[in-house]
Amino acid sequence: MTKRGKLFLLSIVACLLLSACNGGGGQQQPSQTTPSVDYSQVSVPSFDGDSAFLFVSDQLAFGYRHPGTKGHSLCAYYLEQCLHRWCDTVVVQPFLTTLWDGQQVEGLNIIGSLAPERDQRVLLAAHWDSRQWADHDLDTNNWHRPLLGANDGASGVAVILELARIMSSMPPDVGVDFVLFDVEDQGIPEWAGRYEDNTWCKGSQYWAQNPHRMFYSAQYGILLDMVGTDQPRFTKEEISMNFAPGLMDKMWRCAASLGYGNVFVDDLSGSILDDHLYVNQILRIPMIDVVQNSKECSFYKHWHTVNDNLDAVNKQSLSIVGNVTMKVIYGDFPHRKEL
After folding, report:
1. pTM value?
2. What superfamily does domain 9-333 belong to in CATH?
């Protein structure tokens, strides 16, 4: 994924300007902050960590999933079919984009929707491609090798798939869009000797400029990235706080009420270039990034290395993230039969 652990000054300036002009995002609604909700009492479907872990394993079984590979094509079909099982509509959005080295590739954003007819919506997203350069590996011989991307990519997608599966049988009182972005993690590698922000997050840049539904909007969005480590730690990332502080505070408060205050840590952290930036900037949908932030290293020890395999993912961590996400959404929009 796009993370480099640096402050992106231009992005932050843009965030602050847009936040000042738009009240932190054109779609901020009272539902972003619901202090009266006792999240421990919110009724939600049971999130199955074993099922989510299986979704990680399934993705890795296709092998490397960067554009142009057989694994990419096979996994795209798998994800589309999964969403067809649980969603009312599924849209596959192809797009052409040029990578940092001039290579042109075709990406596929995959979008499943519950209750597409409803105007009031919530956006849940992750990226599904795996990186083709292990440029942070300790062994320099691996820098040009692809990686499986178990935590960086597959973990967020797995939580999204499990959420789609269980929310379809007990839908919240809101339309939900599950968006799987492609070509997020093909940005310029460390060994290239230069850096360019816009080489990352190609799928979300395209989707934000060409949403799957004309005039698309949502109450808020939650991006899940690298959410499966055995020592999960999520902090209040700066871009998220600039655009959607109420939503971020609410999610962290929800996590604390469920006993996960040591996972969703109440610490501010620097900006992360990720898919949420473009959703916030272009569509003005307040979106936060739930992303691993280890104290001792960049994101987690296997980030952008060949060791980002199935052993890097913990099913309990997937469950924590899935449950907190559901509690927030159902706290705002209870199951229709409960109304």
Report:
1. 0.91
2. Zn peptidases (3.40.630.10)
